[in-house]
Amino acid sequence: MIHHRGTEEGLEQNNGGTKEEFAVEADLLENKSKIFRFPSNLRRIGAERDYIAPRTVAIGPYYHREPELQAMEEVKRKAVNYFFQESAQEREATYQKIIPIARKARNYYADTHVLDGIPEDEFASIMFIDGCFLVQFIDYMIRASAETSWFASMIQPYMIGITRDMMLLENQIPWPVIKFFTALRPLMMGQIIGFVTSCLGGRILSKGSFVLDIDQDYQPSHLLCLTRSCIVGRKRAMDAPFFPDETVQAYTSAMELAEMGIKLKPTNNTQLSAMNIVEDSFFFATLSLPPLSLDSIGACWLVNMAAFEMWTETSWTDDCSINSYLAVMSLLMSQEDDIGELRARRIIQGLSNHRALEFFDGLEPGLCPGRAYYRLIIGLAEYKHKRRVWIAIYRFLYNHIRTIIKVVSVVGVLVGIFTDIMANDTTATTPARVRQLQLSKNVATRDINVQDTVINIGGNWEELRPDVRMQQIKSKIHRFPSSLRRFGTEGDYIVPRTVALGPCYNGKPELQAMEEVKSAVVGYFFLELGVSQQATYERFKPIAREARVYYADTKVLEGIPDDEFTAMMFADGCFLVQYMDHMINLRGETSWLRSMFHAHYLGIERDMLLLENQIPWPVIEFFTGLREPSLLGDIIIYMFASLGTSLSKEHLFLDINRSYRPPHLLGLLVFYLVGSGKQVLEIPTSNKASRGRPGFSGALSVIESFHISEKQPLQEMQVTTSAAELKEMGIKLKASKTMQLSDIGITEEGPLIANLSIPPWSMHSVQACWLVNMAAFEICTATGFNDEYHVNSYICIISLLMNQEEDVHELRVKHILQSFFGNKQTLEFIKGMAPNLSPGPAYGRFIAELAAYKHRRRLRIAIYRFFYNNAKTVAAVLPIIGVLVGIFKTVLSLEQKQQ
Q1: How far apart are CA 334 and CA 252, in angstroms?
Q2: What is the dihedral of CA 428, 431, 437, 439, to 10 degrees?
Q3: Is 233 left (phi over 0), alpha (psi -120 to 50) or beta?
Q4: Which of 85, 145, 613, 820 is the most exposed, fewest CB within 10 Å of its CB?
Q5: Minimum mean pLDDT among 340-344, 585-589, 620-624: which range?
Q6: Is the CB of residue 807 less than 8 Å from the CB of residue 801?
Q7: Do residues 731 and 754 lie in contact, with contact meaning Cβ atoms separated by under 8 Å?
């Protein structure tokens, strides 16, 4: 049982011993309950890979005053109001109760310099707000009930960022604060442990069923401490005094273990301390390692748990399970082939081979492994010494198996020829004998290509408005969500480069050149239209007043008066509609307008679908109504064609859902792309010109028979796979006939074969930018776990199929990805984005369907996989069998003749 209790309680339980022993125990207990800074030996790798500082929310005093995190302070205060259901009296009474707890909590922080500038009342306020917010978030994640719909809509855009930041070592609050608020909710310890393990599933641990070896009365020092305990379990009893000998080293790798006859095997126990080596027979042994399913957020958590362990596991008698496990994994990885071997054995999943190798190589020098590591290293060294002769024999066979097959084949053929010659000398030639000789010659002259043979061996309190409607969330123009902001900033997917649309980037100096172009386009728009620009502007003013409330970031509008905002909407809306009309119809506009648009069209197309560069839909609707009523359908077709398919309007049949009013142009594209409307967009199969190109269909390919209930959460159905693994299972990848991202499903085509249909995507620079912004829009407008998240789910499914560049190539061959990017660049793009997304029920249904298929056809899959992986071996062995059969028949014939 793990007990990290306070110093006084720990001393009360010790009834014997000297004062010096009391002092040592007090120091150890106090050290284990502290909230530390990141240790120096891991700080460099932590800073380089952004594993230390929070990105979204500050919890505790260390990052409380960081400017980039202040936006979440308002959200936290709203969460406090929601927690107390707007009861100011109850809130104030609770605050008075937290003050004495906050005084004790102050002693938990090891870095006292940060606390010097924070008075006690401000610190108590921090503990009150952060503790209340964290417990409210955990409660929402556990229950996800319908009554939390308002809180869901507020917290959903930040959910991934909060999930990441709440497990950072320097972003913790003491457990007594969390315990105080969980008692108010109430939340049981078992529920919190369940929440922690659900977070670990798919991020660090690859198994769905967790073996929790932790006491329900356990009192951790903070949430990260509890998380570590869930994947480490109880401390082992001391079996013997242990002191590592620095002379005992085992330099090895996964591929070297395969050469030695040591098979890698995932343990049934997900606790990272479960590592051991067991001898199976003369030639074989098994090294059991806990399986690891790691994404970028899980990697961040793992590094922070290792950092926490360095402060609390302070003796050679400690296992240091996290550090030891990471050190063992790093030991087994020296090249990408090693990661491929670990992946094939289901020990590591998630990160691509290249990123996994970089992660472990960079982490290894800063680790402090303990007994668990040295125990395994010594066991491995002893095995190598005791079995050195058998290992040498096995290694020879393993490394020369192709040569052995070649020699055996040639010897078999020569023996057959020699036997035939002897038979000719001793027997007369008969018609049957002639046929037999001809068979032997055919076998002898057969070309056996051994090179292709592969043998597989192995604060102000802001009152909450209860009348906030969910539709307002969906109709707003949001800022980029914090969970994707870092990825968006690094990839330049947020800020416009060519043209500013709307107020967010209107005054950006490098975009001012396009403002003059906008004015000229407005003049041309009304010149061609033949109506008064001034009269139209007067009619537009009420539309602009309505459009002002669409922007979620009201601070952007504070310095913009109504008349300036109206002029901005008028110019931007007119410019955008004129541009799309030109690109759709390609009329004979003036050469100046045509040259201007074509000189900047890639930049305009990129910028017009950025989340923060949108103008409200009523503005676009107003100007499309002036141009022509049917322009809306043409705009949808134009955007679909811009996704990478060169389709003419004659090949599309469009039934638009006229009742749907999107918030902006990006929302319109997402609506039709995910198949949420009543539209039918398809290409006639009889059209030869369009054959091989992705088309459109409004059919929703969803698996309604798979229902994810609260008793069977998504994390318990995690399926780790890749394009290469699906190929081994007999599942063929196939591009869907539609581009709608909901059109994903598995269809069985025989006893051994199935098809996985996935909508194709064109991965060019503009389309990649659109994809990121569509995912960001979906995160911002979601109001709960029931939202489908089709874009997020689609990206996560594509990421699930990619572990290495060969998987990207397979998707490219199957025309699922049509990309100007290289395989490596595509892999880095998808793998870098996916961990920051929020996959929804659409992703869950796919996982459930794939898991059900693998379970239902597990025997057939095993048979197919054997023949798939050993096809060349079977092809090499069959000629040998044929030769042996020929020899046997020849010998039998000779014996019959002699008789």
Answers
A1: 9
A2: -160
A3: left
A4: 85
A5: 585-589
A6: yes
A7: yes
Q: Which of 131, 72, 68 is nearest to 97 (CA)?
A: 131
Number of residues written out for the chain: 899
- The pLDDT tens digits for 71-97 are 899 899 988 988 888 667 788 999 999
Query: What does the alpha-carbon distance between residue 800 and residue 807 come to, in Å, rounded to a whole number?
Result: 10
Using CA atoms, how far apart are residues 334 and 331, in angstroms rounded to an integer? Answer: 7
Q: What is the DSSP string of 22-44?
A: HHHHHHHHHHHT-BPPPPHHHHH
What is the pairing mode between strands 348-350 and 285-289? Answer: unpaired
Query: Which residues does residue 761 pair with via DSSP β-bridges, in sequence order?
Result: 817
Q: Which two structure tokens, joined as six digits, stand for 147?
A: 């009554």
CA atoms within 13 A on the CB side of 898: 11
Cα 861 to Cα 40, 151, 686, 797: the distances in Å are 49, 45, 36, 21
Q: Residue 438, SS3?
A: helix
CB neighbours of 602 closer than 8 A, spacing ≥ 6? Answer: 766
Distance (Å) of CA 30 to CA 5, 12, 34: 9, 14, 7
Specify whether the CB–CB gap between 572 and 604 falls below 8 A: no
Q: Residue 701: pLDDT band by 50, 70, 90 thresholds?
A: very low
Closest CA to 248 of 389, 390, 375, 387: 375
Q: Give the type of residue at 15.
A: N
Cα distance between residue 596 and residue 582, in whole Å: 11
Distance, in Å, from the CA atom of 712 to the CA atom of 340, rounded to the nearest integer, reads 31
Nearest to 778 by CA among 656, 654, 663: 663
pTM of the prediction? 0.70
